[in-house]
Design goal:
The chain is of the alpha/beta class. The protein has one domain: Glycosidases (TIM Barrel), CATH 3.20.20.80. The protein is built from 16 helices and 15 strands. The protein has an eight-stranded parallel beta barrel with strand order 2-3-4-5-6-8-11-12, surrounded by five helices. It has a three-stranded mixed sheet with strand order 7-9-10, covered by helices on one side. α15 links the parallel β11 and β12. Bound molecules: 5-hydroxymethyl-3,4-dihydroxypiperidine (IFM).
Amino acid sequence: MLRPARFPQGFVWGSATSAYQVEGAPQADGKTPSIWDRFAHTPGKVVDGSTGDVACDQYHRYPEDIVLMRELGLRAYRFSLSWPRVIPDADGAVNAAGLAHYDRLVDALLEAGIAPYPTLFHWDLPAWMQDAGGWADRSIIGRFGEYADAVVRRLGDRIGTWLVLNEPHILTWLGHETGAHAPGLADRELALRVGHVVNLAHAEGVRAVRAAAPEALVGSAWNMESAYPATDDPTDAAAAERHHARVNAWFLDPLVKGAYPEAYLDMDAALAAMDVRPGDMDAMRTSFDLIGINMYSRAVIAHDAADPISGLRRLPGSGPRTSIGWEVWPGSLHRIIRRVDADYGHPAILVTENGCSDPTGPGPDGLVHDDDRTRYLEEHLGQVARALDDGADVRGYFAWSLLDNFEWAEGYRQRFGIVWVDFEGDLRRVAKDSARRLAGIIAGAPLEYDDTLA
Ligand code: IFM
């Protein structure tokens, strides 16, 4: 049945980006390379051979982007800070010029009535930290805490909500198991160890934020996908649960519940490979004021004995696909919000990322009629409204992304922005139809949702 979508007073309407994907200016004001500068400059790592050297040049053009956000009625901006801008070298000295950039950005946002939602880490690890062992070396725990402390002390008087990490699952597995992302390592055992260190560093980051900004809300942005069993067979249901544990809960449960979820057939072997040491589980325990969900698609999962570790296999779903190949399945956003609501004690939830790739560019009229994205946003926002009607405490929604940008190993081929960027020319921005529709919904235009979607 179709129902009217309603969003509460004070619902946070935002858009999101990350430093390496939009900033450019890789050497400005004392910045040193991150692992993504290195990775993108390594031939063969990014499909179109591109880099984030220029990206959207938001480092210089942020005033223009803030005007755009304001025109669209967006009331929050989720961006990330580049760690090597703030701490360029292994000596740990804070780079005043690098921090000053974020100081100006935050002030300009506030002046425009847009709330800043900074993320401390969105994958651009300093190259010096990688040279010291990166996420595999426990020294990163203290180094991340120092970095968080420096940032929060400087900006904390103006920030209401901090997001500590973006998608720890992706940085762990794509960076260290498949090697599709920086630092490009492909070693499953290493990835298991890395995941544990990421969790320890994550907790340290939360502690650093709480110590420097006790009044602020703290959360992170976890990538999540609802796992749908391929059939009614109980073995498929169990496999889907393992998938949920590995992707959605692995980087959350240990921090809030003090234990790893059952993600592997042989959990003892997995824990042994992870190098869990005495005291680690206590050190990891922390609390979050809100849970950020980054959600794009779903996972259809079948039991598969051929995989002796996870015992599962991913199947293609029956829904339509976006240009990057991800299945569109709006009901899964409702479903994952309900699951997080149930599993973590009715927490405050932010949809910290949601969106789709759609290559549509300006037509003869100069406008961008990105109908597929418009429909995607309408359907997914509708499912957020459905979760709200069901009682979930969803506080806001951030469209990914404000701008077309550097889509990691996909380069500039995949456009996720609600604003088109002229990468071939002068980087001019054009708000797409999807941005206009979002602006309309923010302003109260009617939207309906289907409460029968699976
Ligand atoms: O572009 C990314 C973002 O950096 C993290 N979440 C998923 C987006 C789309 O792939």
